[in-house]
Amino acid sequence: MIPPPDSLLRYSPPVLVCRRTEKRSPGAPRLQASPSALPPPTGPVPPPRTAAEPGKQTQELLNAILPPREWAEDKTLWVQEVSSAPSTRLDVVHLQEQLDLRLQQRQARETGICPVRRELYSQCFDELIREVTINCAERGLLLLRVRDEIQMTIAAYQTLYKSSVAFGVRKALQAEHGKSNMIKRIAELEEEKRELEAQVSDQKAKCEAIEKREYERRQIEEKKHTEEVQFLKRTNQQLKQPVTIRKPEDANSR
Length: 254
Description:
The chain is mainly alpha-helical. Helix content is about 65%, strand content about 5%. A three-stranded antiparallel beta sheet has the order 1-3-2, with no helix packed on it. β2 (about 70) and β3 (about 75-80) form a beta hairpin. The radius of gyration is 54 Å and the shape is rod-shaped.
């Protein structure tokens, strides 16, 4: 197992717990490290503490708030607890500088969603909780509640985002399915439209043929009617002429 990466949260030097690779059960008591198992100190070595010191209670509270991290390396199990050393103003300034430096080194985004920026700010907030808890345990527990509330809110937003993405994908699939049905329906309607247009053309042609035939028939009937009228006029005129011729003879005979 690879050792955990460096963090903005201050930890104590790692402690060798055991040299076996078997995993301990959750209920098993934690093994205490012997002084010989500690790695060579890189800085000033703090004096040994007794069980009656109040620092032990502070360390237990810190372990409850910020659990120690464990990792296996070369068949040995190492444990690293959060440091219980108080911080000064210079430590806070150094924490701010380290935060800005790591944001720049890891190329975190300044705006928008960025997992790197969120991770670094979470480490910075945990370090502030550690520093406040050492000075005032109640204030540290209150900050812990604030941190848990923020994490719960972020988790809720993540769940909402995932559900919205799933809903959007489902709606997109439904839209694609509906789109294919609509394309098929449009093709059917266009085919029906062409058939109706062909029927309209046929009916127009029939109507024009009927109108032409009726016009020709009307012309023929009008011509025939005109001829009949002319014939009747001529007949009437012929019938009137003998009557006018016989009138003088009738007068002389009388």
